[in-house]
């Protein structure tokens, strides 16, 4: 699918505020509301836009402790196996295969250090995990839900 500069601006505006009206977006990209709707419908139909969601402040729900955990896995553990296991843990907010020594990187979020430790122990108990290496986040410096250089700067 061809995505032009107007599509990119529409995507960036939706990333910044998924509740923006088609009229508001149209005013920002010089299109009518129906033209914006047609473009958004096309972006959704082709899978460019996969859905709309609420972004919740972790502090507001009390999950302010977070860590990145490198997973080292046994034998021929597949990315699918890691993904299935990661989804079993509510503290996992992201899981990624990576290059380097580790097989995967998992982002955990918890209420406090005790909760983080319990989540980490449950993750370590997965049958394919041979070892882990954890890094606790002290502060967030940059965070963007965007998809590229235009995200967040409509």
Automatic annotation (TrEMBL):
- Entry keyword DNA-binding: yes
Pfam family of this protein, just one?
A: HTH_AsnC-type
Q: Where is the HTH asnC-type domain?
A: 3-64
* Keyword Transcription assigned: yes
Signal peptide limits: none
Record's Gene3D superfamilies?
3.30.70.920, Winged helix-like DNA-binding domain superfamily/Winged helix DNA-binding domain
Q: What is this protein called?
A: Lrp/AsnC family transcriptional regulator
Q: Which SMART domains match?
A: HTH_ASNC
Q: Which domain of life is it from?
A: Bacteria
What keywords is this UniProt entry annotated with? DNA-binding, Transcription, Transcription regulation
């Amino acid at each position: 699918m061809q995505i032009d500069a107007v599509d990119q601006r529409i995507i960036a505006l939706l990333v910044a505020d998924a509740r923006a009206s088609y009229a508001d977006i149209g005013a920002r990209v010089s299109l009518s509301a129906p033209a914006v709707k047609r473009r958004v419908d096309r972006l959704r139909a082709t899978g460019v836009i996969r859905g709309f969601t609420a972004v919740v402040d972790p502090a507001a729900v009390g999950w302010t402790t977070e860590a990145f955990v490198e997973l080292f896995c046994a034998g021929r553990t597949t990315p699918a196996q890691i993904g299935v296991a990661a989804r079993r843990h509510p503290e996992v907010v992201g899981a990624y295969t990576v290059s380097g020594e580790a097989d995967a990187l998992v982002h955990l979020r918890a209420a406090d250090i005790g909760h983080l430790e319990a989540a980490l122990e449950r993750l370590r108990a997965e049958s394919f995990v041979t070892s882990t290496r954890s890094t606790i986040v002290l502060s967030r410096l940059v965070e963007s839900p965007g998809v590229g250089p235009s995200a967040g700067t409509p």
